[in-house]
Amino acid sequence: MKKSFAFALALLLFAISGLEGLFAQEAQLVEWVENASALDNTKIALGYPVPIPVDTPLPFDGFRSYAGLHARHQDLANTTAWSIAMPVGQTQAGRTIWVYQLGDEDHSTIYGLPEQAMLTNGGIHAREWQSPEVATGIIELLTLSPDDEHLISYLRDNANVLVLPVLNIDGFLQTQRFPSTNWLGTDLDDPQFSPRDGRMRRKNMLGADEDLATTCRVWISIEIMRLIGIPTRPAHPACRTVLFTTVQGLLQNRKYRPLMQQRCWDRHNS
Q: Which domain holds residue 106?
């Protein structure tokens, strides 16, 4: 019994050490697959088929591409009486961000009072593909459902429903451009097994390009607080120049200068 326990413990420690070796390696591209050997550190087995976006505007048992979703949004705005498409801004890459106003054209309830507004903001986190699908489902529900003299009719007549289905279009397209490929080990301040770009890009990126081979920019986030905490010791030393240039730009902003100066000095010289 003791020998069996010792043998099992030895196997467990061996497995843990193998995982530590996998996660401690330099930055690398890995691929999501349905099944793979545990010893293959170039692949991550999901245990189910890797989701791949499909260029279709119609809902199905899967995920639509951004092109398919956008085509659906625009078509419903052009062919139904319950959706108005409005551009509200642009992404870092210059792509138009759209919001859809759902309901009747006036802004008054059936009682003549101002309609209350509600906003659904989808697609903030690029890698969460279900969010644009849910937002699109709301658009589909309120534009295609028949009058029911109940909830659907009430919302159309008495609410100003705004749906922004994909806010982070650049990041969303990046994850769909590489639906099974991820960078690992690019951020030394986070666990090295945490994916940072490719399929698992999370937020929009300031200065990031769409080339997955560009390792220096895979972790530069657009958020000020994340920029305050970005790593100065990435896996690739050449990234220091990119990082410090970004930080120097932030130092010109008086609002963040004191905190940025102290934090950047500490981290850049550590």
A: 66-172
